[in-house]
């Protein structure tokens, strides 16, 4: 049989006959992958005949029909799963073997085991045209940013660095400025960890983004802007949040025009992260100003949806609303099923290790507050739960800093900075 051995686990080749499929086990194969759509040629045995012949030979069989122009990441992952499923050496074929090998090398590249140049070399060495794989990877990179999450155990916030591997440009999303409320001490440890990662990875910071004015921690946006020179941004409705909290803090001097940020994003606004297209979706409900950043296939949803076992964010802060949150979540769940969702907090239900990445598909299937739940039921559940939640311990500390883009209050004559709290201004006291 005509085949090319790629490694211990894989050989690829052109279309085998059904009798050749039957003999695969005798040649030491444990599985067959058919990557060829039916009816490409009249003489082709086709899926049913191959499945039957593989069954006869007692080897695993997987049908992953692809054309070079339409290979998706799901196809690549299915190919990897089929290799695991076989539990031994696999023969993968299409018409010539090129598509089968393309599926394999794309999986290797996605998992960081092969670089583009190694794919080209391999193709040349084997005389198989793998140029489609290189083109696929280029297009994929523009669609699929690298995302690193930095979990802050103190506030259980997740901060992100999202980067374009092509241009090495990155955005920092929702960075935390550390604050110890017991002593009033501030450090920049979390933000400095992010800066070290950025430097070690050879990245340039192009954006410092906040998804909303946080109620549980200080934003490190201003500190990072001073360190990197990159522009800061938040949702344009932050102006409404500023107006609301100017009243609560009795703070007439506060500018409520959003001018503390370099850019204010409205629903549907687009921008570039390196070569990757990014789009802003308005996602109010948790706060008036919440937005989702959709960067390639990665949506930074912050406090809308948490991990599926955690459900959703609360909607009872000033300006919050459960039904508005429901609508924002529905917009997010209308994104393609494979869209990666990166949440802003993980409260680690049951004490499990922190997690922050899911997909639209997983959330639709399994979110504890959403799967099989109507808007009515969600609003009831959310409002009932919110009545039981005490206010975040830093809400009064954090908002006065965060509605100023993470600027601390100006020092007084003695050089010290002071926060100011209203008494009896918020509901939700937990005695
Ligand atoms: N115990 C935390 C609560 C923080 C909190 O309320 N987090 C918001 C997001 S900013 C939330 O949605 N929490 C959901 C929940 O606690 O179930 C604190 O005091 O900081
Ligand atoms: Fe929040």
As for the CATH topology of the largest domain, it is Metallo-beta-lactamase, Chain A
CATH superfamily of the largest domain: Ribonuclease Z/Hydroxyacylglutathione hydrolase-like
Q: Briefly note the structural class of the backbone.
A: alpha/beta
| Poorly predicted segments | none
CATH architecture of the largest domain: 4-Layer Sandwich
The number of helices is: 13
The hetero compounds bound to this protein are:
glutathione, fe (ii) ion
> What is the terminal separation in angstroms?
78 Å
User: How many domain units?
Assistant: 2
- Tally of extended strands? 20
Helix content: 25-40%
Give the strand content.
Answer: 15-25%
Dominant shape = elongated
Give the biggest beta sheet: 6 strands, mixed
Mean pLDDT: 96
Instruction: Using the coordinates above, name the CATH class of the largest domain.
Output: Alpha Beta
Nearest-angstrom radius of gyration?
Answer: 26 Å
Strand order, largest beta sheet: 6-7-8-11-13-14
